[in-house]
Amino acid sequence: xxxxxxxxxxxxxxxxxxxxxxxxxxxxxxxxxxxxxxxxxxxxxxxxxxxxxxxxxxxxxxxxxxxxxxxxxxxxxxxxxxxxxxxxxxxxxxxxxxxxxxxxxxxxxxxxxxxxxxxxxxxxxxxxxxxxxxxxxxxxxxxxxxxxxxxxxxxxxxxxxxxxxxx
Amino acid sequence: xxxxxxxxxxxxxxxxxxxxxxxxxxxxxxxxxxxxxxxxxxxxxxxxxxxxxxxxxxxxxxxxxxxxxxxxxxxxxxxxxxxxxxxxxxxxxxxxxxxxxxxxxxxxxxxxxxxxxxxxxxxxxxxxxxxxxxxxxxxxxxxxxxxxxxxxxxxxxxxxxxxxxxxxxxxxxxxxxxxxxxxxxxxxxxxxxxxxxxxxxxxxxxxxxxxxxxxxxxxxxxxxxxxxxxxxxxxxxxxxxxxxxxxxxxxxxxxxxxxxxxxxxxxxxxxxxxxxxxxxxxxxxxxxxxxxxxxxxxxxxxxxxxxxxxxxxxxxxxxxxxxxxxxxxxxxxxxxxxxxxxxxxxxxxxxxxxxxxxxxxxxxxxxxxxxxxxxxxxxxxxxxxxxxxxxxxxxxxxxxxxxxxxxxxxxxxxxxxxxxxx
Lengths: 167, 422
Prior knowledge:
The complex is a heterodimer of chains A (167) and B (422).
Chain A: E1 2-9, H1 16-19, H2 30-34, H3 45-48, E2 54-57, H4 69-76, E3 81-84, H5 89-98, E4 102-104, H6 106-110, E5 117-121, E6 126-129, E7 135-137, H7 143-151, H8 154-162
Parallel strand pairs in A: 1-2, 2-3, 3-4
Antiparallel strand pairs in A: 1-5, 5-6, 6-7
Chain B: H1 7-16, E1 26-30, E2 33-37, H2 41-51, E3 62-65, H3 75-91, E4 95-96, H4 105-111, E5 120-123, E6 137-140, H5 143-152, E7 154-158, E8 162-168, H6 177-188, E9 197-201, H7 203-206, H8 210-218, E10 227-229, H9 234-240, E11 261-266, E12 273-275, E13 283-285, E14 296-299, H10 301-304, H11 307-317, E15 327-330, H12 335-344, H13 346-353, E16 356-357, E17 378-381, E18 397-400, H14 403-412
Parallel strand pairs in B: 2-3, 2-5, 3-4, 5-6, 8-9, 8-11, 9-10, 14-15, 14-17, 15-16, 17-18
Antiparallel strand pairs in B: 1-7, 12-13
Helix pairs in contact in B: 2-5, 6-8, 11-13, 11-14
């Protein structure tokens, strides 16, 4: 898995209420959720994010509610990977389960500015800031996480386990 | 002999069929209950349909509670609730609570005896950690984890490290469980317990009733915790006896169990506390917040919507009137609380004061409905989060307190203490 795009950089404790405000939780439609992604933090985000772009944030990204609408909104807004110094645990789990790639890489976060061009190799964990030429070695996804993400989420894994057939 | 273990490690080991576990170990546990609500269940149901099983693993061990946008605020939320209701009928889910017997899930399920000591519970709601107050391992997950749990009756966990909070001594007059947990979150920060289990113990905890213990465990997630837990004692046993529908199992931490850190807190140091916008860790003494004028007060939620919370607020507001610039909204967390309030006269105390008293709902806590804030407005709330836009407009503000301070603030028109009412 290779990702490359423009970095959108935010601070610490980005909570799930600003990722997708509760006033939009009366739907679970991914496209509708994506249209309001990060609205209360940066109303311009949805207008400037392009497919493949990379979200960069400091500590405790995704704290708060367990709403899976948060990683769904980020993924369907076009974000290819989220790089943060640390993630809140429910968000971490939800991101993997819904197939949104995430990486914990504190040094990379410090070396990436808003608008920088960034590439990520999820197989090796190599993060490169193309704009500055710097690169960092982060922890690559363990194989079982890569399988979940590549397979489209946890449900596919469970399906294999219970031997389920019908879609 | 297995290694010394914490209560959390013992519960996870028992549910994984292992003699012992260590922090960091990945284990697969048998679940006692899977929970979802009207926001998270529709996605869980969508994912469940993809798993490829015909039925839920056990229709008596799935709890579905329509509490966030109910009674439904609009057509979209009604459609979400209907997806859940149709699923309940198709699968014969026994623990479903329709409008009229519904309550805020984390107040309702302990009250109805659906959760008990020693359980492993996952819930597609972050405040699932509340049930740790009964000596259970309970943690919030997303809809997909809940879907797989409903299909298989199992979930994988990384065994968390445990943090021990030893709180000793008598709480000062006017200080309650909410102040204790806000004090702790203010001390360690919103990621101070990230991925960890928070174990609360000490004479202060022992002196608290179940309601206060649930308030404390409820907000473990606000420190980033995976779970909060309090070991079973006579208070827990008395609460569960005749109520909890399944046999329960008591676990206790070994004296030489290993903790990532032990915090020792003197109860006398804890003062009435308010969390300023926009993080629950942004705490200050209420006595230093009197210059904050407010527009609304909300008393309710899974954090502070139980009868004891209502009684605490009513004691303060009795004989007073809500300030003319303030809307006061009181939301009992369950039908039982609502009924008890009527019978004991609490409802009349709130109505006489000029408050609105609502049917149970999560409502304004998450900015859903029933008390949304306009631009620039400020609310004091007994709820659990004060993030940007949590209760309405992104420029509105939420200040978190316990019920007594919230009631006093409603009368004063600004943040203040019960003794300020004179």
